[in-house]
Design goal:
With about 230 residues, the protein is α+β, with helices and mostly antiparallel strands. It has nine helices and seven strands, in the order ααββαβββαααββααα. Helix 4 packs antiparallel against helix 6.
């Protein structure tokens, strides 16, 4: 009888071991003996109660879902959507209103909104947003945001405000395209962005804005010409 009682307790431990695991990987051995898949157990033999162990996420180059610039009233100046998360203009407009209201109430620069990771920063009377997936690296999104603001500030040589960007909308789109292309981060160094844009100025295009006057050095040429007169 005593031996049978010991065997009964041993079986109970095995049955519990299948659900909760035992030190030394008891649950993993039971599953292996049954011919099922073997999963690594968490540290301490805690097992995976009722759940399969999570698999590693596949890394993706498509980091940025959207890049937005809104004014102090939440009106759009620029919006670039890089996937089908918000496929219609109505959904995009509703999303922009939502994150604008939430960012005005919340402090800091990072927030989780509608299952997405959103980093944002104000500059003058503008709000800049970079949107990524719910599990996206916040530091990577912040690097995009910082690069965009620093590049625009360097090129404009002024505080980044609505009135200056309205005069340089073509330039702002070019800056964005140098940093992110179809959701992939191309550059996070503002100096490299400025350098690449300066190489594009000689191309024949109607970019006669303050931004490109600075890049081409036309302002200095005009000043030198006036001094000779």
């Amino acid at each position: 009888m005593g031996g049978d009682g010991g065997m009964g307790r041993g079986k109970m431990r095995k049955r519990n071991g299948k659900e909760w695991g035992e030190p030394g990987g008891g649950a993993g051995r039971d599953k292996g003996a049954a011919g099922g898949p073997q999963y690594p157990e968490p540290e301490g033999g805690g097992g995976w109660p009722g759940l399969s162990p999570p698999g590693p996420q596949e890394p993706s180059l498509y980091t940025v879902k959207a890049l937005l610039v809104l004014d102090s009233l939440g009106q759009r100046l620029l919006a670039k959507y890089y996937d089908s998360t918000f496929p219609t203009a109505k959904e995009q407009s509703a999303f922009e209103r939502s994150i604008f209201m939430q960012s005005q109430r919340a402090g800091g620069e990072v927030a989780s909104m509608q299952g997405l990771t959103v980093v944002y920063r104000s500059s003058g009377d503008l709000c800049f947003y970079v949107v990524g997936g719910g599990q996206e690296n916040e530091l990577m999104l912040l690097s995009v945001l910082t690069c965009l603001l620093d590049a625009l500030g360097h090129l404009l040589q002024k505080e980044v405000e609505k009135r200056w960007l309205l005069d340089n909308m073509e330039g702002m789109f070019l800056v964005v395209d140098e940093i992110v292309d179809r959701g992939v981060i191309l550059e996070s160094d503002p100096q490299q962005v400025v350098q690449r844009l300066s190489l594009r100025v000689p191309e024949p295009a109607p970019y006669g804005f303050v931004l490109f006057d600075y890049l081409s050095g036309s302002s200095e040429q005009k000043d030198s010409g006036n001094s000779h007169k």
